[in-house]
Amino acid sequence: MQSILRGGNRVLISKSTNVYTNLALERYLAENIKHQPKTRLLLLWRNQPCVVVGRYQNPFAESDIKYLAEKQIDLARRYSGGGTCYHDLGNLNVTIVTTREDYNRKKNLHWIVNTLNEAFNLTLHVTDRDDIFLDTFKVTGSASRLERLYAYHHFTLLINSCLNDLRRSLKSEDQIKITSKATPSVRSSVLNLADRNNSITYEKTIALLIEKFFQWNNEKNTTNCDYIDPLLYYEQMKDFENELKSQKFLYQATPPFVYTVEHEKQPIEISVSNGIITDIKGNDSIIDKKNFLGQLFHAVYHNIQKLNKT
Amino acid sequence: MSHIVSLRSASLRALRSSSTIVAASKCTTSPHRSCQPLRKFSYSILSTSPDQNSTIGNNKNKKRTHSARTISIDSVPDSVYRFNRRIHTSPVFFDSVDVRAPPFPESVKEGTIRLLKKVGDKVSVDEAIAEIETDKANLSINAPEAGTIEAYLVADSDNVTSGVHVAKLNTSADAKPVSESKTDAPIGKVETKSGQSIEKPSADPAAHISLNELSPSAGAIRDTSAPQKPIAHPIKTYAKIDPHNVTGTRLETRVKMSRMRLKISERLKEAQNTCAMLTTFNEIDMSNAVEFRKKYADQFLKRHNIKLGFMSAFVKASACALTDSPIVNAVIDGNEIVYRDYVDISVAVASPKGLVVPVIRNVEKMNYADIERAINEYGEQAKKGTLPIEDMDGGTFTISNGGVFGSLFGTPIINLPQSAILGMHGIFDRPVAINGKMEIRPMMYVALTYDHRIIDGRDAVLFLRKIKQYVEDSRTMFLDI
């Protein structure tokens, strides 16, 4: 069991499609594997439909929380920075874990672009924001996390995702109502790789990436590729997984923001810090402050929406 | 580069009245200046007046930390005595560790810091104290040793650059948690550097020597005292505030002008300094134009595949008026007036990089469709950034449309080397008197700024009236009246 934490050039494919499990697995492996210099760990995973926001983002500003609840789309916050993305089974997640010194996003992205362009006859290119675009459409967004001893760079790859659900989930009406210093997302039009070349499938892509990964790292031992069932490591990962699932991390890790509601033509400003409503500015006679002050914002979100209607 | 250490301030203030103190100041070297282990020590004498103290910490590096202000002065009485003895005798070993932002990856210049722990929290070695978000990468700042967080020198969500002093960690075992309330308040005023100072490597306090790397026997690592109270005279602060947010904290932020902005300001000033500029106004009744456009919009779109707008009406009207008043189409060169027998009109177009002004050539020969097509093409090229330089050069007349933003009335500035510019403004419904009756018409104010050196008032007014006539009733262009 412990050999899962050995270093070297390796490929691991997660058997789970639960976003919280996969994010916990990613962090667990990154923190505990003995990374060797000049080697990389490739982690391939995908999730059931979910929306993943960046570490310091505001989920209310990035996605339609009500729609997510209706359609039972998970909402998760990851440990790395950057913007929000929508995952489903047509969206491949790739994580490349290295030592801190070997961290290089551009190299990773250029490898992917070259591999995919060659194999599937595409015209992908890397932008200076470390995205991958196909013509004017985004197919990949990146994010990373750097710790003292290790660093990981992960990115998504839209192979065959449901773009309608993507757009619908990431549409937020609260965006204009929220002012904060949270990381904003930079929105782009997206495209599936399969739309451009309909022979591209998830299976083909991961087979291609695994093969090319070892070539890229000049690794002769190409057997270092395993499927990993995160459930086997549940004990070790459960702290991370519980944190990722907790309401505290999901909602209360949002940087402080002000949510403005229009109630009977008067603006009411609700200040939220650490997920708790700390202050309400507005016409006192209209709203009953007691119901809101000191409450968790996401818990009373529904009632706040009702205020907006009148 | 931090010459100021918190707990000293109180003790030194106590000692100040009694004697002058010789203190060693540590000049931290930035990595590109000299080799690492060399630490220069300079000695300075602390005088008794607090104002002078504020300048002592200054060396060539003008930017200083104001960390002392953020620390509340309630140090434990015991430590005062400890300092008392130590200052006179042996070098001081300080239990406070500087925590700095790590080097940023991939030549990123600055990031946003998010504080994870509060002042007074106990942290173990390598535990994450804060995270810096740079360009979609999260960097974690870990505690170099176990201890208690004494103070933060930056506020949550501040912009920081690599190497910036972020926090102070108290590693001594009996550290009393500092009271948080006072320390958090003035946190805004600290030494986070503006990311724009890239051109001065010496300004970047990129010294990564934290105190715990220095052994206590390495000599006097005492830092010069901080100003004990907030400086009386207003210092130009070096705190970074968001230039787009007016929060009223009475701070400034300096942002270097971009090349484009410098160019624009240069040309505008040149125009003002050369021409004798003044503006004449008129108003245009747009009802006919609006009706005309509505009537033929679909047909036009079907045939030419582009939308029929108002710009073509104004561009063509100006061209006709210019052929009628050649002096407006002319320009002064030295002591000669240069008349041109063609009309090239510069039209302002918005591009992602800002405003660009491509030129439509030989407008006197074009019809509405040709003009719309040209404008459209330029718009596309501007969006893609492929506008060739030759297309922006020349031009005998400019039209600027402030109406898209809702402007009512205004005076445009001449675009050299031309002699006049037409400013279009917004179309608003207004009550006007027509044949003795009041009617509501969509009206647009137009402004013609002209160079009085060659265009007289009479010419300018008549020119503008011609434009008005040609726009209000486009048939008059055929009558040549």
UniProtKB/TrEMBL annotation, chain A:
GO terms for biological process: protein lipoylation. PROSITE patterns: BPL_LPL_CATALYTIC. InterPro entries: aa-tRNA-synth_II/BPL/LPL (IPR045864), BPL_LPL_catalytic (IPR004143), LipoylTrfase_LipoateP_Ligase (IPR004562). It holds the Pfam family LplA-B_cat. Residues 36-221 form the BPL/LPL catalytic domain. One of its GO terms (molecular function) is lipoyltransferase activity. GO terms for cellular component: mitochondrion. Pathway: Protein modification; protein lipoylation via exogenous pathway; protein N(6)-(lipoyl)lysine from lipoate: step 2/2. It comes from the Eukaryota. Belongs to the LplA family. PANTHER family: LIPOATE-PROTEIN LIGASE, LIPOYLTRANSFERASE 1, MITOCHONDRIAL. This is BPL/LPL catalytic domain-containing protein. It comes from Rotaria socialis. The lineage of its organism: Eukaryota, Metazoa, Spiralia, Gnathifera, Rotifera.
TrEMBL record, chain B:
The keyword Transmembrane does not apply. Residues 96-170 form the Lipoyl-binding domain. It comes from the Eukaryota. Pathway: Amino-acid degradation; L-lysine degradation via saccharopine pathway; glutaryl-CoA from L-lysine: step 6/6. Keywords: Acyltransferase, Lipoyl, Mitochondrion, Transferase, Transit peptide, Tricarboxylic acid cycle. The keyword Transferase applies. Dihydrolipoamide succinyltransferase (E2) component of the 2-oxoglutarate dehydrogenase complex. The 2-oxoglutarate dehydrogenase complex catalyzes the overall conversion of 2-oxoglutarate to succinyl-CoA and CO(2). The 2-oxoglutarate dehydrogenase complex is mainly active in the mitochondrion. A fraction of the 2-oxoglutarate dehydrogenase complex also localizes in the nucleus and is required for lysine succinylation of histones: associates with KAT2A on chromatin and provides succinyl-CoA to histone succinyltransferase KAT2A. This is Dihydrolipoyllysine-residue succinyltransferase component of 2-oxoglutarate dehydrogenase complex, mitochondrial.
